[in-house]
Amino acid sequence: MENKPLLQIDRAKIRKHWGKTDSEVEECISNLKKWIKTQDFPEMPTDHMIEVFLTNCKYKMDQTKINIQCFYSIRQTIPEVYDDSNPKLPEMKEAWKMGGYLPLPKLTPDLYRICMLRINSETKGFNATRYFANAMNIYEVKVCEDLVLGEICIMDYSELQWSHLLYFSPFLLRKMIFIMENVAKSRVKQIHVIRTPSYVNILINIAKKFMKKKMADRIQIHKSIEELYKYVPQELMPADYGGKQPSINEMIGNLIDLFFNTK
């Protein structure tokens, strides 16, 4: 039995947004596959994956080639994030206890994906590199399944402990922002930080130093969930945030099933 997709997409509307017909998209994909065959990549990406790279790069072919190259070369460029990060490893299953990066199932009306980032309160055994590696595993699920115009990121760091900050070195934050801007190229529209203790500002201010100004200026800090709903439709949020979608734990369970119960 084929697994039910985790993420809702609307391919026709995405293509219409970029002014592309089905035949034009197929031609772009075909041309890129010919180019990929001349490269030393470990696989031939699926047509869907190639379309994700195309939309990431607004259908600019040269930029799309660079995006694909980065996607496959980053494992050698930043090996500490990707080495021993196979999602089927027991230690990566344990990584979910640290928190994680979670794309929500339904698209916004303007075809953006809401993605949540959380850190759980437990600091014993916390490993920032593995936390980020888990996020990149989820990003690879998105490359295989998702198709959007961009992302709206919601960071819930209400459980962040002061001691967590010791694990987030500027060196590691810089590498993760590099991945976000050059590999994920997720065209982040908004970044919302909710329910955060005051010392989270330290982490945010360090991260901003490595971000492009355009990205840093999109960060908004909210004192309440109600403030967030001025920007994000409440019904698209998880049930434990007052929305109508499955709970965070249920969605995480679906991802763990995907990684551990499929061949």
UniProtKB/TrEMBL annotation:
Q: Could you tell me which InterPro entries the record lists for this protein?
A: CRAL-TRIO_dom (IPR001251), CRAL-TRIO_dom_sf (IPR036865), CRAL/TRIO_N_dom_sf (IPR036273)
Name a single GO cellular component: membrane
- Describe the location of the CRAL-TRIO domain by residue ranges: 89-246
- Check the record and name the Pfam families matching this protein: CRAL_TRIO (PF00650)
GO molecular function terms listed in the Swiss-Prot or TrEMBL record: phosphatidylinositol bisphosphate binding
Please state what the protein is called. CRAL-TRIO domain-containing protein
